[in-house]
Amino acid sequence: MNRDATGSYSVTAVAGEQVRVFVPFPLPPDPPLQLTGARQLLLEKATIAIGRLDSISTLLPDPHLFLYSYVRREAVLSSQIEGTQSSLSDLLMFELEATPGVPTTDVVEVSNYIAALDHGMARLREGFPVSSRLLREMHAALMSRGRGSDKLPGEFRRSQNWIGGTRPGNARFVPPPPQEVAACMAALERFLHDDNHPLPLLLKAALAHVQFETIHPFLDGNGRLGRLLIVLLLHHGGLLADPLLYLSLYFKQHRSLYYDLLDRTRTTGDWEAWVDFFLEGVEQTANSAVQTARQLNDLFTEDGRRIQQMGRLATNALRVHGALRQQPLLTLQYLSNHHGMTFPTAAKAMQTLVAAGIARELTGQPRNRIFAYDAYLAILNKDGEPL
Hints:
The chain folds into two domains: 7-292, Fic-like fold; 309-380, Arc Repressor Mutant, subunit A. It is built from 15 helices and five strands. It has helices at 37-54, 63-81, 88-95, 104-125, 132-142, 178-192, 201-215, 222-236, 248-253, 255-267, 271-308, 314-326, 332-338, 343-355, 374-380; strands at residues 7-14, 17-24, 329-331, 360-361, 370-372.
């Protein structure tokens, strides 16, 4: 449905040139979203898929293992959209304090993303609401180290930013001027907690994501934080017990359409096209996450069965296999320090897994070796190569 533009334009001077900036109207859309039969079906299918994802604990003996790896996969994908070249293996090696194969700055950005999510989830568990304050706190964690650490971490911007182009004058989109940011964010926060305009939580998250990206309240990190906002809202609203739904891969795979639909909501008010895209993404992403969990469960079960057939070597090999399930990249020193094994015992057990084709040594060096659970990483890395 085409409405008029979903905001107003004004002209301001930026770097010596006159620039049209866009200030969005408060949500919800006016006139309201059209929930046709087809769109209602999309909503129902997406909600059912999320419910299936939320019950993932019934599929896995230890769902926290899946959460650990899946969050890291999301951190890599979300950061890749912003131009980093890190892989999941780089991040895991960085967390082992091993030398990654990419510039450290890239991996730090991914690590910051995990810190921001962890901070947000911890605050929600304390009873803190999804709010401008929470987003500023998460932004401080997101931008605490590496690139962007000099761009006002935790503070709304005090200068004009833009999207695309080399300057505001030829940008694809110019967000509100800095003096309007606080008011725009306050209006978004009121929408998130407004019970007078009840909307299904998925639709509220869809609208809020666009509004946040339109406001672009920070000098850097808006894309990553806008994607985190989705999972925060779904968790806070009770649809997800754990932060397991991430649309970064879907947005990455449909990058051009994603940006086109954001532009269309602003210029023509076609919220419905965006909502359809969003709901399809939720359904696909939730179903994919459930499939990934099942693949991992099958892998762990089959490899565990093979190890149990190794006779006297099985006991310690199973302990190392359990450690690799927790972290699919490991060093022998890490095993010795964190899993109660002597270094020789860890080395012998790991060699048993290497001989069985379950683990693989990466460095080719006699010392400071790093071992990977290749099949585990292959499942997590599907479609996860840098752009």
